[in-house]
Amino acid sequence: MKISISVPSRFWAFSLAKHLLEHGHLHCLVTSYPVWEVKKYGIPASKVRTIVSKEIMQRLYKKITGKYPTSVFLNNWFDRIASHKLPSNSDIYIIWAGFGSHSIQRLRKKNPNAIFIIERGSTHIQVQNELLKIFKKTKEPINPEVIKKELIEYELANFIALGSSFAKKSFLEKGIPEKKIFVNNYGVDLSKFNLSLSLNNAGRNENSVFTIGYVGSIDKRKNVSGLINAVESIVKEGFEIRLILVGSHNQEEVPAVLLDRPFIEYRGVLPEDKLYKAYSDMDVFVLNSIEDGFGMVILQAMAMGVVPVTTYNTGGPDVIEDGVNGFLIPVLDDAVLADRIKILMNSAELRKAMGKAAMQTTLKGFSWEEYGNRAIEFYKSIMQQNNSEESKRSH
Predict the structure, then answer these.
(1) Contact yes or no for 243/214 (Cβ under 8 A)
(2) 171, pLDDT greater than 50
(3) pTM
């Protein structure tokens, strides 16, 4: 079984590629990252083909404008080049959504029996666009050409791989057949995020200031403003509290003045191998997203024994049992968020029990290895089905 991956960055593709490599299934990885960077993740140069020009153009654009490019140009640029770099004799192609319509069409002509899987890290792009309209000022938050391209990919692909039941629901709502959808909850690197790291980093104690944390993009989609408002409402009641924010800050969507609160500690962007230090300082982790295909930071926090509070519009419902190993809350409800925070703030015993349960959850099927195992089992099953159908056709 030869499997090739086309990804316009890194995402979780490198974890999947490494697992496929270890099991003898990785045929080729096409990425915008340079070879020397990919090798850091244990993937040999012989398996890698790069399109670094996409990464250079994207980063230059962001450096000059402060924004990521919004047109479909880079999507098509990467896609067209990838369609030539991907080997034409793979059995399965895993292609990142928004970067694959040309690749699928070109490779299918050369390899009509191949299976194409679109990997989508968010909800159905039309649903995502509708949810983003809640807070975006523009009529169409996502470029219509990008939407059009993805819709073509959904139609062309044999399967669509998603990270959560929330994402799956969005595809079903848009008429995608359930048999075409594969849900595989994402994982966490337990060597980088685990309770022992928290203990080795001093951990939390009863005399520490109660600390809430967030890791991710500081923007409207993640509703960081709502999180700040909820924490501020608790502070106004006279409680001493701290809010740690980690991640890139979109100042157009979340004004800098909003972060200028005495209870906020903004730590900027941290490399993944340093994130555990931030989680170690947290009593509670909050992901207040309006829309998230999963939210891998949920699992990172849980693996560190930090109690998660997250909205239903994430992968939270797939990993959190409300009130047992975390809390699930509705979107855009600052009052409910503040209430759940206060419940945890007022009971160290409850926090400890829920944090322990959260950590134990990550040990039951949420490592990247287990993610990879589930993926391989799925690939094997669809290969068998494909071979069986081919055999029937030949007779």
Answers:
(1) yes
(2) yes
(3) 0.91
